[in-house]
């Protein structure tokens, strides 16, 4: 079973990491596997830890994702244990206690929560470099990107090492686009539900080195999308058009365009409940 998840990642330059971490990551980058192989290893691990209590990897097969730009390595720590602790908490929060207890024993969930709290206390720089979304890409995740920053490959088979869809941009435009979108949405709707996700993404991006790279990876979601669907997907472009219309005061048209993006991903998300 493929984990049907998308990922929002931040890759930082080696200069962002203090010693001795910088030396460790520099050595790691020399022999690091590529993004597709690292993602496949992470997905393989998810299948072996689902029945653990709690389902948190003890020996992660991937320490980091590595991107090279003009020969220079940029590091995105995988932090599989921390992300697993976070996911358990989010899972339980979304369900009534009796149902959540049936899937994850309360004692295991409490232990994961304690481990996460301890990590935030003990870690000198407690930043999580990867965000995960199952079964869909949240529309606000497209805010840092433009459509022409998409890299897409439709291979001859459906393996994660072949078909892929990834957006990448530098941190500077990612922050600028997110801040601009937030200002326009806030001016149109005020502070509230409409701005909450954008504010959260904006704060998250500000945590990292200004020379970082931001990546939106469709990950396992490519297994849910046909070649035609992937070609037709204009989510980043439509979201940008919606924001531009909103800035011009075309509220109804802007909301109609935004609804197109929401409904497109809602159909993908609905596959979670399909037989």
What does this structure look like?
- The structure is a single chain.
- This protein is an alpha+beta fold and 275 residues long.
- The chain has one domain.
- The chain has 10 helices and 7 strands.
- Strands 1, 2, 3, 4, 5, 6 and 7 form a 7-stranded antiparallel sheet that branches.
- Helix 3 (80-93) crosses helix 5, helix 6 (171-189) packs antiparallel against helix 7 (193-205) and helix 9 packs antiparallel against helix 10 (251-269).
- The chain is globular and about 50 Å long.
- Residues 48-53 have low confidence and may be disordered.
What secondary-structure arrangement, pairings included, does this model have?
Layout: E1 5-13, H1 21-30, H2 35-49, E2 64-69, E3 72-77, H3 80-93, H4 97-103, H5 106-122, E4 130-134, E5 150-153, E6 164-170, H6 171-189, H7 193-205, E7 213-217, H8 227-232, H9 235-247, H10 251-269
Antiparallel strand pairs: 1-3, 1-4, 1-7, 2-3, 5-6, 6-7
């Amino acid at each position: 079973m493929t984990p049907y998840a998308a990922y929002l990642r931040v890759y930082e330059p080696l200069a962002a990491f203090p010693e001795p971490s910088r030396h460790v990551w520099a050595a790691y980058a020399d022999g690091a596997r590529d993004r597709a192989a690292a993602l496949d290893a992470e997905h393989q691990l998810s299948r072996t830890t689902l029945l653990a209590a709690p389902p948190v990897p003890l020996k992660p097969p991937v320490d980091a994702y590595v991107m090279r730009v003009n020969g220079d390595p940029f590091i995105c720590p995988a932090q599989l244990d921390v992300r697993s602790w976070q996911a358990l908490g989010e899972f339980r929060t979304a369900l009534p206690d009796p149902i959540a207890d049936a899937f994850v024993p309360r004692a295991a969930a409490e232990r994961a929560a304690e481990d996460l709290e301890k990590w935030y206390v003990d870690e000198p720089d407690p930043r999580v470099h990867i965000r995960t979304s199952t079964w869909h890409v949240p529309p606000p995740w497209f805010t840092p990107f433009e459509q022409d920053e998409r890299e897409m490959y439709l291979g001859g088979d459906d393996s994660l090492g072949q078909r892929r869809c990834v957006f990448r941009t530098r941190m500077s435009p990612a922050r600028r686009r997110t801040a601009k979108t937030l200002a326009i949405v806030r001016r149109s709707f005020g502070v509230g539900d409409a701005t909450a996700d954008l504010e959260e993404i904006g704060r998250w991006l500000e945590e990292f080195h200004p020379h970082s790279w931001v990546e939106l990876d469709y990950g396992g979601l490519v297994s849910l999308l046909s070649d035609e669907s992937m070609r037709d997907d204009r989510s980043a472009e439509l979201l940008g058009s919606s924001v531009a219309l909103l800035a011009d005061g075309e509220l109804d048209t802007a909301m109609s365009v935004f609804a197109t993006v929401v409904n497109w991903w809602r159909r993908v998300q609905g596959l979670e409940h399909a037989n």
